[in-house]
Specification:
CATH architecture: 3-Layer(aba) Sandwich
Structural class: alpha/beta
Shape: globular
Helix content: 55-70%
CATH topology: Rossmann fold
Strand order of the largest sheet: 2-1-3-4
Order of helices and strands: EHHEHHEHEHH
CATH class: Alpha Beta
Number of strands: 4
Length: 128
């Protein structure tokens, strides 16, 4: 059975960030080993649209994201998570709940190192 991967990435409601997340998902699924072992969920794509209509507050949306994270087997953080309240909270949750995670500086690094990153993810899942 495939493992569920939560893709954490700074958003801020910016289209450039959404496009970068989509680029990352494409990079991941182009790797056969990743495709065969993992399924990606993007909280930005699941819930991001809700902020646009002021249907939910930031904190309510973050809680939706965290509820999704709790269902996942591991997390990949891509981008500068240190300046993102959401990414920082997601990392804290992983640390507290022993959800394995890795951090990748940006989508270019992901693309250039996808084989090694996939190998690392597979190793993480053997340890979990």
């Amino acid at each position: 059975m495939k493992k569920l991967v939560y893709l954490s990435h700074p958003s801020g409601g910016l289209e450039d960030n959404t496009r970068d997340i989509e680029k990352c998902i494409r990079i991941l699924y182009k790797n056969k080993d990743f495709y065969n072992n993992f399924t990606v969920v993007s909280p930005v794509h699941c819930y991001g649209f809700m902020y646009n209509d002021d249907w939910i507050t930031y904190d309510e949306g973050l809680q939706f994201c965290l509820d999704l994270l709790y269902k996942c087997d591991l997390m990949i953080v891509i981008g500068d998570h240190t300046k993102s309240k959401g990414c920082t909270k997601e990392i804290d949750v992983c640390k507290c709940d022993n959800i394995p995670f890795i951090c990748v500086d940006n989508s270019d690094i992901l693309e250039n190192n996808i084989k090694n990153i996939t190998k690392d993810l597979c190793e993480l899942m053997k340890m979990a």
